[in-house]
Amino acid sequence: MSLTLEIVTPEARVYSDTIDTVVVPTTDGEVGILPGHIPLLAQVDHGELRVTKGSETLILAVGGGFVQVADDKVAVLAENAITQEKIDERAVEDAMKRAEDALRGKDSLEPAEIERLEGLVRFSVAQLDVKRRRR
Amino acid sequence: MASTRDIRRRIKSVKNTRQITKAMELVAASKMKKAQQAALAGRPYAQLMAEMLAALADRVEESFHPFLVKREVRTRGIILVTSDKGLCGPLNANLFKLAADIKTPAKFVAIGRKGAQFLVRTKRDLLADFQVHDRVPFNEVRLVAEFMMKQYLEGVVDTVEIIWPRFKNTLIQVPTVLPLLPLASVKAVLAELRADAGHPAPATRSSDSQMLFEPDAPTVLEALLPRFINREVHQQVLDAKASEHSARMVAMKTAKDNATKLLGDLTLEYNKARQAAITQEILEISAAAFSAA
Description:
The complex is a heterodimer.
Chain A: E1 3-8, E2 13-19, E3 21-26, E4 29-33, E5 40-44, E6 47-53, E7 56-62, E8 65-70, E9 73-78, E10 81-83, H1 89-104, H2 111-133
Parallel strand pairs in A: 1-9
Antiparallel strand pairs in A: 1-2, 3-4, 3-6, 5-8, 6-7, 7-10, 8-9
Helix pairs in contact in A: 1-2
Chain B: H1 4-59, E1 76-81, H2 91-100, E2 106-111, H3 113-121, E3 125-130, H4 138-154, E4 159-167, E5 173-181, H5 186-196, E6 212-214, H6 217-292
Parallel strand pairs in B: 1-2, 1-4, 2-3
Antiparallel strand pairs in B: 4-5
Helix pairs in contact in B: 1-5, 1-6, 4-6
């Protein structure tokens, strides 16, 4: 028995494969999913998603979204997702700084824009966490 | 036979037209490439989200969220996505045909100037019209989606549907109606869309109606459903833009080819006229010389 995992963002399909287990960061803490899991729908938090396939472990940073489990199919819908090796630490730091600067002038921004920037900052933090922990 | 000067004048004007249509074709082609990429990249996300919701609609109580409640349809709410500008072949006309077929009471929201003009002209109930920039920024589309959700929640409309030219490929765009709210009606259309995208229908899911929600169902639904509507509308507008630029490029290419053909015909006619004039002149000169001799 194995799971199929799909990670999709609005920009692209980031990952699609059959895997053994996956650990998803939800708003209530990490959830480990094995084959035979009962149907689940959970909110995904910004954080680290671990995929195990055979002896390999793949780590991705994901931004907020949702995960659905049904019939051994795991579908992750995230605003952002990036694999560990693709994270560019410096670019992330720059993006984070820019977003934080923009947020300082909060009063003049639209609520939707504030939400977007805050999401960006949280995703940046998650990316840096993932990148730095593995060294 | 038209005089050579008249023909020359026509040749000049056709040449100008060809040049303009050629330039427009190139502009449309480059915009098309970008728009198509954006539309295709966003599809898996929208598709997956729609599937997630279709599965969800079966498994949760209607009472968890107003978007799930099926109510009697008195007034349909329809988002009509068209282009701002014309010169894109039958694209908009096909959409209008679809919209004109709606005989039941309906209220409309237009994205794109052409749609707004059409709805005003046919005296439909136009609630609002929106303009969306070519790049389709999420924030602009979100306004439309949120406006529509508000109308739905307030009971102004009893469904939310979207009509847009679905992008199949550069040559084919299919005007499509997709019901978004209430969510129960999403499912029927979904299978068709999926088949169309080249993916077979997913295997029938096991019938266990239990579903675990984290943190809990109302919270998840509250976050998921509005986002679904936002994303879905966004995706359809991206699709519409891809269709628009494709249709425009094809229309301009046809116009350019026609101009080239016309130019060939005109040049032939011009040469004939010129030759006839020369022959005529020689005849006159030789006749004059003959009579003088």
